Amino acid sequence: MTNPIKYKQNKLQEIDLDRSLNLFHILRNKTRFKILLLLTEQERNVTEIREEIQQSQSAISHQLSLLKEVNIVRSRRIGRKQYYSINDSHVEQIIDLSINHVIENC
User: Fold this and answer.
1) How far apart are CA 54 and CA 57, in angstroms?
2) What is the pLDDT of residues 29-51, one digit of tens each?
3) Known SMART domains for this protein (predicted)?
4) Any idea what the CATH number is for the domain that residue 87 is in?
5) Given pLDDT bands bounded at 50, 70 and 90, which one contains residue 64?
6) Among residues 42, 39, 87, 35, which one has the least CA distance to residue 61?
């Protein structure tokens, strides 16, 4: 049987820690986190996101562009609108875990 602690240590040596830390840097932004939280519920367009989090359309579009650039969200066009959804189930799990952690430790 594999020792779980030793396995984790070996895996840590293999992964690019800078890329992992970059993910947390991206998630640290409140607007981006709110956008991702909304997208865990369902696919949305910029207008729907703007109405929910009360930010300007340009601010929302900028944050979505950054999230697309690092493959956290994807988009698809329906007519004249772009709809956004989470592209990485790991990110969705991180968001869920962080929310649950806060709820359980309050």
Assistant:
1) 9
2) 999 999 999 999 999 999 999 99
3) HTH_ARSR (SM00418)
4) 1.10.10.10
5) very high
6) 35
Residue 55 lies in domain: 4-104
DSSP string covering the chain:
---HHHHHHHHHHHS-HHHHHHHHHHHHSHHHHHHHHHHHH--EEHHHHHHHHT--HHHHHHHHHHHHHTTSEEEEEETTEEEEEE--HHHHHHHHHHHHHHHHT-
Whole-number Å distance between alpha carbons of 48 and 53: 9
- Domain tally, the chain: 1
Helix axes 89-104, 17-28, angle to 10 degrees: 60
Q: Looking at the chain, how many residues does it have?
A: 106
**Cα–Cα dist 41/57, whole Å:** 20
pTM here is: 0.81
